[in-house]
C-alpha cells in the first residue's frame, strides 16, 4: 500500500451510521451486548486486511490492488495513461482505473491532469463519465472512473460501420445534452472525438477524457492553446489565432456527426499540413443518402466562421432531432458529496437506500464527517459515489428513451425499429 494513500480509520465504531446521531436514545440494557466482541463490518475487515493480511499486502505491492480496488486487465491506453478494469473490493462494482505515470509528465501536463480532475469533479451529468475517486501514490495517480463496457464510438463505427439515422440521433442528442451542460458550466472540452465517446450500453453514451478541458470565465473569453485531435480541429485552431471555446467544441461535434452518419471523416489527409489546408478550404462532401434535415444540421455546424456556426440551443431544437425528446435533468441527481447523506429530510429519492447500503458495508456517520473537504481523494467518497450511482442507475436515471412526433425518414428508420432498439438499449437524453 503506497504510504501516501489514505486508509479509513480502523477504529471500530460502537454505533451504526444512523444511531450515532441519537446517542441519547441508547438503551442501557444493551450495554453488555455492546461490550461483547462483535463481527467486523466489511469495511473494517478490508481495512485490517490491507494492513495485516499478507496476501492483500502483496497484491497492493505488485499493483493488483489499488486502495479498495482489485485491478484486472488493461482496457485502454492513451497518450498519458493506461486504463484498467477493476472491481471495488466491498461493493463489487466494476470500475475503470486510469493510471497515470507522474514521472512521465512535464509541468504543463501535470497542470492539465489536475485540471482534468477538478473539472470532472465539478461536472455531474448522466452523459458524462463519473469520477468516483482519485488515489495518489508517489509515482502514480489513479483516477477511478465509471466503467463504460461498450467500447468507444470510433471502435463501434470502425467495426460495425456507420450508425443508422435513428441511432445517430439518439447518440448525438446525448452528446449535445452533455456538451450543453458543460458549456452552461463554462467548461470547454476541447477534445471531442469518437475515441472519447464511450458506450455504457448499446445506445447510452458518456463523454470522457477531460485532459484538454478548460474552465472559462465567460463565453467570449479567448483561448490560445491548440488542443485536441487535428481531424476534429476547427479552422480557427489552424490559424494560430486566439479562439473562442464553445464554437470549437461545436465544430468537433459537426465532424463527429458527419462520422456517425457516413462512417467517414469530412476532412481527410495523410499529413497534418494537408489536413490543415482541407479544413481551411472548408470543402467537404456529404453523401446524398444522408437525410436532408441531417445535411442541413451538418452544414449549420461546419461553418468556417465561428460566429456563424450553429449554437447548441439551435442544434437541440433542430428539425433532424425533432423525434427525440430531451428531458429535464433531475435536480436531485447530483448528490455527489457523501455529507449530503447526513442531511435530514433533504428529499432525494435514493437517500434511504444509499443509507442502508453504506450501513451494511460499515460506513458510519463518523467516517462521513471525517471525510469532509476531501472530495474525490477519499475511499469513503469512492464507496458512496459507486453505491449512489448504482442505485440511481437501477432506478432508471440513465434509461430515458423517449420519442415524440413521427420519425421523419420512414425508409431508413421506422417507428418499429425505434421500439426494438428501445427494448435492447438504454438511452439517456437530458438537458
Ligand atoms: P488520449 O490522450 O490518447 O485521448 P488519455 O490518456 O487521455 O488518452 P483516455 O482517453 O481517458 O486516456 O482513455 C484511453 C482509452 O481507454 C479510451 O479511448 C477508452 O478506450 C479507454 N477508456 C478510458 N476510460 C474508460 C472507461 N471509463 N471505461 C472503459 N474504457 C475506458
Ligand atoms: Mg482519449
From TrEMBL:
GO terms for biological process: intracellular signal transduction; microtubule cytoskeleton organization. Residues 1-39 are annotated as: Disordered. Residues 69-321 form the Protein kinase domain. InterPro entries: Kinase-like_dom_sf (IPR011009), NIM1K_STKc (IPR049571), Prot_kinase_dom (IPR000719), Protein_kinase_ATP_BS (IPR017441), Ser/Thr_kinase_AS (IPR008271). GO terms for cellular component: cytoplasm. SUPFAM superfamilies: Protein kinase-like (PK-like). ATP binds at residue 98. Residues 24-34 have a biased composition (Acidic residues). Coiled coil: none annotated. This is Serine/threonine-protein kinase NIM1.
Amino acid at each position: 500500500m503506497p504510504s501516501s494513500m489514505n486508509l479509513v480509520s480502523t477504529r471500530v465504531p460502537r454505533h451504526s451510521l444512523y444511531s450515532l446521531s441519537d446517542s441519547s436514545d441508547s438503551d442501557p440494557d444493551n450495554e453488555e451486548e455492546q461490550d461483547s466482541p462483535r463481527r467486523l463490518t466489511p469495511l473494517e475487515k478490508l481495512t485490517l486486511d490491507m494492513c495485516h493480511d499478507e496476501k492483500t499486502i502483496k497484491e497492493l505491492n505488485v499493483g493488483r490492488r489499488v486502495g479498495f480496488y482489485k485491478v484486472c486487465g488493461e482496457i485502454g491506453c492513451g497518450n498519458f495513461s493506461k486504463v484498467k478494469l477493476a472491481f471495488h473490493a466491498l461493493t463489487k462494482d466494476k470500475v475503470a482505473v486510469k493510471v497515470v505515470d507522474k514521472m512521465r509528465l512535464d509541468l504543463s501536463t501535470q497542470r492539465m491532469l489536475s485540471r482534468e480532475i477538478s473539472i470532472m469533479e465539478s461536472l455531474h451529468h448522466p452523459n458524462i463519465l463519473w469520477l468516483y475517486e482519485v488515489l495518489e501514490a508517489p509515482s502514480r495517480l489513479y483516477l477511478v472512473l465509471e466503467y463504460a463496457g461498450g467500447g468507444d464510438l470510433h471502435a463501434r463505427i470502425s467495426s460495425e460501420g456507420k450508425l443508422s439515422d435513428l441511432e445517430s440521433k439518439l447518440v448525438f442528442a446525448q452528446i449535445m445534452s452533455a456538451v450543453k451542460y458543460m458549456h452552461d458550466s463554462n467548461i470547454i472540452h476541447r477534445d471531442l472525438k469518437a475515441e472519447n465517446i464511450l458506450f455504457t450500453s448499446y445506445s447510452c453514451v458518456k463523454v470522457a477524457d477531460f485532459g484538454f478541458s478548460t474552465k472559462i470565465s465567460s463565453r467570449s473569453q479567448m483561448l490560445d492553446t491548440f488542443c485536441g485531435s487535428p481531424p476534429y480541429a476547427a479552422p480557427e485552431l489552424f490559424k494560430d489565432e486566439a479562439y473562442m471555446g464553445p464554437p470549437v467544441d461545436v465544430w468537433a461535434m459537426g465532424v463527429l456527426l458527419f462520422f456517425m452518419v457516413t462512417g467517414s471523416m469530412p476532412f481527410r489527409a495523410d499529413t497534418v499540413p494537408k489536413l490543415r489546408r482541407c479544413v481551411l478550404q472548408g470543402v467537404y462532401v456529404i453523401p446524398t443518402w444522408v437525410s436532408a434535415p441531417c445535411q442541413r444540421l451538418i452544414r449549420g455546424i461546419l461553418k468556417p466562421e465561428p460566429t456563424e456556426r450553429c449554437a447548441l440551443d439551435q442544434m437541440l431544437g433542430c428539425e433532424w432531432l425533432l423525434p427525440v425528446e430531451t428531458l429535464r435533468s433531475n435536480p436531485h441527481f447530483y448528490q455527489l458529496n457523501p455529507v449530503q447523506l447526513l442531511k435530514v429530510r433533504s428529499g432525494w429519492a435514493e437517500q434511504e437506500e444509499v443509507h442502508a447500503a453504506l450501513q451494511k458495508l460499515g460506513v458510519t456517520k463518523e467516517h462521513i464527517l471525517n471525510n469532509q473537504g476531501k472530495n474525490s481523494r477519499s475511499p469513503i467518497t469512492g464507496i458512496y459515489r459507486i453505491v449512489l450511482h448504482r442505485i440511481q442507475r437501477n432506478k432508471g436515471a440513465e434509461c430515458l428513451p423517449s420519442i415524440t412526433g413521427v420519425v421523419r425518414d420512414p425508409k431508413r428508420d421506422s417507428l418499429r425499429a425505434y421500439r426494438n432498439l428501445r427494448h435492447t438499449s438504454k438511452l439517456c437524453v437530458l438537458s
